[in-house]
Design goal:
The chain is 76% helix and 0% strand. By secondary structure, it is mainly alpha-helical. It has one domain. It starts with 10 loop residues before the first helix and ends with a helix.
C-alpha cells in the first residue's frame, strides 16, 4: 500500500461508498465491500506480475547487451530495477 494511503482512500472503497451510500442493509454493504476488496487484490496481483515480467525481460536484454555490441545495457538494467522496486512496493 502506498505511503499516506489508507484502505478507505483507495479507488474501490470510494466507488463502494458512491454506489452504496447508506441505502442498503448492512449485510449487503459488507458483502459488496468484501467483493470490492477481492477485486482490488486481484488487480494488484496482475499489476505485480506484469511488472515482474517486464523487469525480467529488461534484465535479460540488459545482460544480452553486455555481449551484443549494438544493444544498450544501462537503460534496460535501470528499467528492470525500477520495475522490481515498484513490484516489491505493491
Amino acid at each position: 500500500m502506498a505511503i499516506g494511503k489508507t484502505k478507505s482512500n483507495t479507488g474501490f472503497a470510494q466507488l463502494n461508498r458512491w454506489l452504496l451510500g447508506q441505502s442498503l442493509p448492512n449485510i449487503y454493504y459488507q458483502q459488496l465491500t468484501i467483493g470490492l476488496t477481492i477485486m482490488e487484490s486481484f488487480f494488484k496481483n496482475i499489476q505485480k506480475r506484469v511488472l515482474v515480467a517486464i523487469g525480467t525481460t529488461s534484465l535479460v536484454l540488459g545482460i544480452a547487451g553486455i555481449i551484443l555490441p549494438l544493444l544498450p545495457t544501462v537503460p534496460f538494467l535501470i528499467l528492470s530495477q525500477i520495475c522490481f522496486a515498484v513490484a516489491a512496493a505493491i
